[in-house]
Amino acid sequence: MNVRDVLRVLRKRWWWVLGAVTAALCLAALITVKTTPRYQTSVTFFVTTPNSGVGEAYEGGLFSQARVKSYAALLTSDRLSAAVSRKSNTGLTPAEVRDRVRAEPNPDTVLLDATVTDESQQRARLLATHVAAEFKALVELLETQPGRPQSSVKVEVVAGPTVNDTPVAPQPVRNFLVAGLLGLLLGASAATMRELLDTTVKTNDALAEAAGAPVLAAVPVESALRDTPHRLVTAMAHTPRAEALRQLRTNLQFVDVDRPVRTVVVTSAIAGEGKSSTACNLATLFAEAGKRVLLVDADLRRPRVAEYLGIEGAAGLTTLLAGQARLDDVAQEYGTGMWVLPSGFQPPNPSELLGSAHMADLLEDFRERYDLVIVDCPPLLPVTDGAVVAARADGALLVTRARQTTQAQVHAAAGALRSVDARLLGCVFNMVMRSDGDPYQYYGYGYGAPGQAGARSLVDDLSAPEEPRGVPVSAGR
């Protein structure tokens, strides 16, 4: 994943980043409010040794610098803390005093800084005053031990104690800045990781690679379908979705000019990918183009065609397979040039019926009587019905819903078709978000574009189909 891919992911999952930053800022605000203000008091000591000449001054300076490092540890020693605790009358234990004192020598100098931090300004000043007094007394005591020269080291307070009026903690600006940066980093990392772990099909190239077949059309999702989910392409003739389905019709006609397609199975890897609505819309579009089309609902487990088109589905394909009726008795005319064969009653053995010799004879009969036969079949992974019918058809279309079906599922579905020597004509990438496809799929200069609102295709003008009966068709199955 390169920088461009990361930016695309962040643009698509911007709410992840926003949520992480918001949560981090809220946490920083909570910590800032809950933190007790603390104040600092500083004292600076100057450590020197008596000298009488230049050489002695140089050696004394080196000696003092070495002493400063030791005195830094002395400022936080138990002995000094106990003395300050006893004489300051602050009610603090030696351990509490030691925790409030920090010593830091200035590099390459003979200066030593002591900092006292406390929740009270007055107590911080009082502690710093007693630390300075007790430190000087302790150094004098240690340096005048038997065997040492008198006054070999001298410690003076050159600055302080100075109390800052502004508390050193909490620091709202720093807290919010750090929280914002951490939230941005965590949000971006989470969004990128989610994208890397997401194995669903998101692009045309990924779908073509997983299926081993070309993508004949990428059908975008329409915002209008959220309010009116059941619509045929004839009811939304000048939308990107309708144009994508017309592109599918055109590509299907020219997928192989040497082997014309007369019977097409429309299936998917799993349920809910929009195969039934794709089959209904594709049949409608071919009928618009002047073809005699038969739409067959071969999903004998969860039939949807009759429900989508608003027709009676009690008698249909299973009635023919049972020998209880003829095709003319159960096929229902739907508009001009289109007939629909519902599934009929639901049998206990769908796979056996669809794989029977009688079903093969029916498909041959359909081929002779109609220009194109479109068969809506069940998903390939849950059951074998779709593969059984696809093996006897001229080809199959694999409908895949963007960001729902995984690449492994697409690969397995394509493998199920090839295992029965079925011909996979191509894939239909359904319910594609506008950020998923390529720019040419968005029809920026097609129907509905500025200046093109009233444009109609030549096929629209010549075919002029009558309005179909029944309720419109859903975008998804």
From TrEMBL:
Q: Output the Gene Ontology terms for molecular function.
A: ATP binding; identical protein binding; non-membrane spanning protein tyrosine kinase activity
Looking at the record, the residues that make up the Polysaccharide chain length determinant N-terminal domain are: 2-87
**Keyword Cytoplasm attributed:** no
Cellular compartments per GO CC: plasma membrane
Supply the alphabetized keyword list: ATP-binding, Cell membrane, Kinase, Membrane, Nucleotide-binding, Transferase, Transmembrane, Transmembrane helix, Tyrosine-protein kinase
Q: Return the broad EC class.
A: transferase
Its chief place of residence is membrane
For membrane topology, the record states: Multi-pass membrane protein
> Which NCBIfam families has this protein been placed in?
eps_fam
PANTHER family named in the record: FERRIC ENTEROBACTIN TRANSPORT PROTEIN FEPE, TYROSINE-PROTEIN KINASE
Q: Which family does it belong to?
A: Belongs to the CpsC/CapA family. Belongs to the CpsD/CapB family.
Q: What is this protein called?
A: non-specific protein-tyrosine kinase
Instruction: Identify the species of origin.
Output: Pilimelia terevasa
